[in-house]
Write a structure and sequence with these properties.
Length: 271
């Protein structure tokens, strides 16, 4: 039993607890009147736009779960390459909503999503397939991770915009590490050079370890294993991996061939 593995039912209570903690942090950051139009680390977005984005995203999850339980045809996935432009349009469209009204809406959305996730039975946590608007069919547990990405990373964005010294909380970072490999796989640039190569990624934290990464015509694959004989290894702590994958920072320590490591790090478009 691994309570830190959010892909398993054993990790359900842990991730839902951490999501709630991160949501409360974000709500507290967004509640002061003077914070509403303050800048964030997301280009062109104030705090109000972050709140609007998470509300819009969460409300999309409701439709996805309805579809998964027979409530309609979700259609084809929109795809991640166009995600940045679309989420910006959706968030900006809500700028006319008053601060209290939009925060109350997000809090209600959060509680409804928590109820949906907490109500998942053991066989549904990884067995119920839910159509994500951008990524297509995904197991239900991914939506808990999606909530954690939204609240933890965007709370980081708000703190970053305020110019304060800060860092990503360890529990959130640890839970997100496995999903960062999936995100990398899903964000390989269409124009990337996929001439085959290998390298290692070493990650700290409870879900870290040593990973052998292979890149080729089929994209990127990875597995845990020895890093012996590889031309380069990129080392991350858990938080730095998450923030690098989301394009908030360029972090990591390269051991070995710098050109190979940078070729890997430049494979991805950032969301």
């Amino acid at each position: 039993m691994n309570e830190w593995d959010a892909t398993s039912y054993a990790g359900k209570d842990t991730i839902l607890r951490v999501v709630r903690e991160e949501a409360e942090r974000l709500f507290a950051l967004a509640e002061p009147e003077e914070a509403w139009e303050a800048p964030t680390a997301c280009a062109g977005w104030a705090v109000r736009d972050v709140v609007a984005h998470i509300a819009d995203t969460t409300e999309g999850y409701f439709a996805a779960f309805d579809a998964a339980r027979g409530g309609g045809d979700p259609g084809a996935a929109y795809g991640l390459p166009g995600m940045g432009a679309r989420v910006n349009e959706q968030a900006v469209a809500l700028r006319g909503i008053a601060q209290k009204e939009l925060l109350d809406r997000l809090r209600a959305d959060f509680e409804r999503m928590q109820d949906i996730l907490r109500g998942l039975a053991e066989d549904e946590w990884d067995g119920l397939i839910v159509p994500h608007f951008y990524m297509g069919p995904l197991p239900a547990y991914f939506y808990a991770a999606g909530q954690l990405m939204d609240y933890a990373v965007h709370a980081w964005d708000i703190r970053q915009g305020a110019g304060r010294a800060h860092a990503l909380p360890g529990e959130a970072a640890d839970l997100l590490v496995p999903f960062m490999f999936v995100l990398w796989q899903s964000t390989v640039r269409k124009d990337a050079d996929l001439t085959p190569f290998e390298l290692g990624v070493r990650v700290g934290g409870v879900n870290g370890g040593d990973f052998r990464v292979s890149v080729g015509d089929g994209g990127m694959t990875y597995e845990k294993g020895s890093l012996a004989g590889l031309p380069a290894v990129v080392e991350f702590d858990a938080g730095s991996m998450v923030l690098t994958t989301f394009g908030r920072v360029n972090a990591g320590t390269v051991r070995g061939d710098l050109a190979v490591a940078e070729r890997f790090l430049d494979l991805f478009f950032r969301i």
